[in-house]
Specification:
heterodimer; A: 340 residues; globular; B: alpha/beta; Elongation Factor Tu (Ef-tu), domain 3; Rossmann fold; 8 helices; binds flavin-adenine dinucleotide; binds iron/sulfur cluster; binds FE2/S2 (inorganic) cluster
Chain lengths: 340, 279
Amino acid sequence: MEKRVIRKETLAGIVGELAGKMRVCAPMKAEDEVLFRVLEAGEKPLIEFANAKNAPKNFLFPRTETLLKFTRTGKGMVFAGDQKDGGETLLFGVRPCDARSFTLLDMLFDQEKYRDPYYLDKREKATVVALGCVRPPYTTCFCTSVGGAPLSSEGVDILLTDLGEAYLAEFLTPKGEALREAFGGTPAGEAEEKQKETIATQAAEEIRSRIPAREIKPILDARFEDPFWNTLHQKCLACGTCTYLCPTCHCFDISDEVKRADGIRIRNWDSCMFPMFTKETLGHNPRPSQKERWRQRVMHKFRYYVDNFGAIACVGCGRCVMACPVNLDIRKVVADIAKL
Amino acid sequence: MQNPYIPVPVEVAKIITEVDTKDIKTFRFAFLRKEDEAAFEYLPGQFAELSIFGKGESPIGIASSPTQPGYLEFTVQKAGVVTTALHEMEVGTVMGVRGPLGNSWPIDYLAGKNIVIVGGGFAFTTLRSLINYMLDERNRSRFGKITVIYGARTPGLLIYKDELAEWAKRDDLALHVTVDKGDETWKGREGFVPTVCKEVAPSSENAVTVICGPPIMIRFTLPVFFELGFSKENIITSLEMRMKCGIGKCGRCNVGEKYVCKDGPVFSLAELDKLTKEY
Ligand SMILES: Cc1cc2nc3c(=O)[nH]c(=O)nc-3n(C[C@H](O)[C@H](O)[C@H](O)COP(=O)(O)OP(=O)(O)OC[C@H]3O[C@@H](n4cnc5c(N)ncnc54)[C@H](O)[C@@H]3O)c2cc1C
Ligand code: SF4
Ligand code: SF4
Ligand code: FES
């Protein structure tokens, strides 16, 4: 694996230049927020920021995505081609927690039986450049409780670590290696590697928010029916913000749109927090109240995903904690379950 | 990479109105391309997404049997957008089918055993597929005694009437058709399915029961089978959950860690016991 040192002041320019050659998605200032978006050629991304409000999963699994097209004929509407995004993409400035979310989404979309061609096409063509969290950006960060770390390289092709004056760039995969030239820099030595290790340990220690995420699995196995679930959801507005911002949530709806003779079938993000999510046409709803929906959200992340894929479907980014309008905190929920 | 979201084109070849209320019809589809037909290898108990471009998709159990090549049949109740559009279709219309999806009735497990089929209302569709599969001359010897108990609210709501009449003539199948309430012309049995099951009292010896119907029928029928000595491993049913993708991605249809679309819809009671009770 190649490691190089990149001068700090050059980084944004390098990425801006790449934006003229390929699709580059990076964190950018948007009013008082930071959001991932596609850069114009030459546009420089943010380098110093906490994390983007939206998760970068949008570029692999878009909020709205066309699956296929159809057109009207004398015999009815017929299939007129599928639609894949194509195009090489650079995802720059991804935080290690969000990069890990890609590996969790891979487990679902890339199963032996049924591979999701839309996600996988984009995933294969995306190179992930992560900016390690040398100082964990929020007090709500809890990546270390769910299998991650501030300098984790899971799901990362190029990992950048801020060493103060310069970045250590680790080209971890062939996809990352392919961009080595573009990033330039000078070969890194042992000193930089040592420095990075110290930073990694320190950064992990700085994450104070710790939750018993793994420990609750057997409790969830045993306590599907528990009075605990009767009160948990009471404040919840069913707004869906938590699932919408979550980098690991993958539920979607499929619907058709027609304009004159042509139409598209699209998928849109959906949410288990919405009453309609499981409601059947004839009226029956297996999750009739917000109680069952909140239970589903917790169960899916901390029990079912572990059953099916051996991993917790939460990367500890804290977005749901920060954005919930009624301050429902998944960390507290997990901690409370551990006490059951 | 094969794209599991893309339906194959089929033509509506035949439409049969099954019931006197006219809201349940059987649709026969012919594949437009030979290669799609060859690729559509299915077993009784599986379902498919019926795809009407511009309206959407609905998961519907396959009512024909793989032993009847050349076409697929589905029996559909008019309910919402897609099923209503389907009910308005005419012979010759082209639409899509995506599948086969889901697991199937456990054919290998059923082989060598006596089979008791219990159906209620129009949830008889994939049971009909199974019956026709077992009755096929290439398969009949693989199964023991076949008992079928089928009920509907009224005679007019019984589906597959012609086929029921054919089966009634056979000596390798014991058919018990019942209605909750008969009319002037009805000469058959009257009574609820659970009661008829009790009267017929099929032996649980080397037997499996496959049961599908409205929840209330299932609720009252299960105790009868427990009483008859059927174990939970040998009572098999099919679940229904709202679906979209049909391939375990959209996250909609899970019961516990299982996705009904991909890991089901067929489960034994023993398997259901291990899952959360949320369906
Ligand atoms: C495995 C399986 C087999 C089925 N077999 C049959 C059958 O043989 N005959 C039959 O008439 N019906 C069957 N159903 C029920 C049928 O799928 C729904 O009645 C149908 O999807 C309603 O669609 P709609 O577009 O008309 O309703 P709308 O309310 O307009 O559409 C809602 C959409 O939500 C989904 N949806 C809504 N209700 C259900 C439901 N109960 N189950 C699954 N998805 C739902 C579908 O994607 C549907 O297109 C089956 C369901 C499942 C899960
Ligand atoms: S963000 Fe908060 S209020 Fe909104 S659905 Fe999630 S838990 Fe409920
Ligand atoms: S559940 Fe909350 S903290 Fe965990 S990954 Fe999703 S948004 Fe981040
Ligand atoms: S229907 Fe999408 S997961 Fe089952």
